[in-house]
């Protein structure tokens, strides 16, 4: 005890840092092994088209079925994967798996046939020239139309990665769609939107589900700005009816959130629909109406 008390702050900090580094290295090894042995799985969350009220596409969200740890969410391992080329291997796997899933759903028929899919791609992967090969391979191996694939990238990537813009342009030339994820959390101004090689803006859930009147106005503004630049808009994190009503009133194109469906394994994907407003149901149910 006396010995510990006599140790310098730097030494203790050193120990903590060493333990932290060891934990990260172990996680990285386990993740690499998990990727190779099929422990990673994609969950899918419906994205609803607010014009038709039906599911038009799904977002693929990775989960890690790590033995002894249960189902590990992406926030617990993506940051570690992003520290190395592992995140590129993960992205390549996700592109192949998600496009193959569309083919399986097409063959199955029913409400899951003909869907589109969005895959999250890390900035580190987007900066690599082989990203284009990974996308081309996934399209060729699955045979799906390029327009059924959307690549989601976060806003900050556009500033941090010099090659990102060039690669996004190439992706769009292939016919793949590009979405900016978590919009509003970074530094992109509305004015810059017109010059970015993107098709879709995904408004971050912190603006959609805050319940703050100022945020509701901001969302309206973002939607009209996006539309004036011919971008589609997806609202993330819709959890309540009132949020949905505000989005419908603002002519938002699509929405995603727990109000409609949570992310689920491929086999459980529901035929999610926009709930019909209570008064519309009442009118339809009126005798003689
Ligand atoms: P994201 O791409 O912004 O995905 C949306 C996240 O919001 C998902 O969390 C989803 O489950 C969650 N979400 C959806 N609707 C609601 C809602 O109504 N309320 C709340 N509270 N949350 C909602 P998830 O699956 O934990 O993923 C977290 C993040 O991890 C993703 O954020 C994405 O940035 C990253 N990620 C997921 N899969 C991948 C992947 O395959 N590759 C990479 N590079 N990143 C991934
Ligand atoms: Mg996303
Ligand atoms: Mg997001
Ligand atoms: Mg996110």
TrEMBL record:
Keywords: Membrane, Transmembrane, Transmembrane helix
Annotated Gene Ontology cellular component terms: membrane
Keyword Transmembrane helix on entry: yes
UniProt GO BP: signal transduction
Superkingdom of the organism of origin: Bacteria
Domain EAL residues, every copy: 24-277
Protein biosynthesis recorded as keyword: no
Name of the featured protein: Diguanylate cyclase (GGDEF)-like protein
């Amino acid at each position: 005890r006396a010995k510990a008390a006599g140790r310098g702050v730097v030494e203790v900090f050193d120990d903590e840092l060493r333990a932290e580094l060891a934990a990260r290295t172990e996680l990285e090894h386990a993740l690499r092994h998990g990727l190779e042995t099929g422990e990673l799985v994609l969950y899918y969350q419906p994205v609803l088209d607010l014009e038709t009220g039906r599911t038009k596409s799904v977002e693929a969200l990775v989960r890690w079925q790590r033995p002894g740890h249960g189902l590990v969410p992406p926030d617990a391992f993506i940051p570690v994967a992003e520290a190395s080329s592992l995140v590129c291997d993960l992205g390549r796997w996700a592109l192949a798996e998600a496009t193959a899933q569309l083919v399986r759903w097409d063959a199955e028929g029913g409400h899951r046939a003909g869907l589109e899919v969005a895959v999250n791609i890390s900035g580190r992967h987007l900066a690599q020239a082989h990203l284009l090969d990974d996308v081309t391979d996934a399209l060729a191996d699955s045979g799906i139309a390029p327009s059924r694939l959307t690549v989601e990238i976060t806003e900050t990537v556009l500033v941090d990665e010099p090659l990102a813009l060039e690669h996004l342009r190439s992706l769009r030339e292939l016919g793949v769609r590009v979405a900016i994820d978590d919009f509003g959390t970074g530094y992109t101004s509305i004015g810059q939107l017109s010059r970015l090689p993107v098709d879709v803006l995904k408004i971050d859930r912190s603006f959609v589900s805050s319940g703050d009147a100022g945020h509701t106005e901001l969302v309206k503004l973002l939607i009209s700005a996006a539309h004036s630049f011919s971008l589609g808009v997806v609202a993330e994190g819709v959890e309540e009816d009132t949020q949905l009503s505000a989005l419908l009133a603002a002519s938002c194109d699509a929405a995603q959130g727990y109000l409609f469906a949570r992310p689920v394994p491929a086999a459980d994907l529901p035929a999610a629909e926009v709930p019909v407003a209570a008064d519309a149901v009442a009118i339809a149910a009126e005798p003689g109406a």
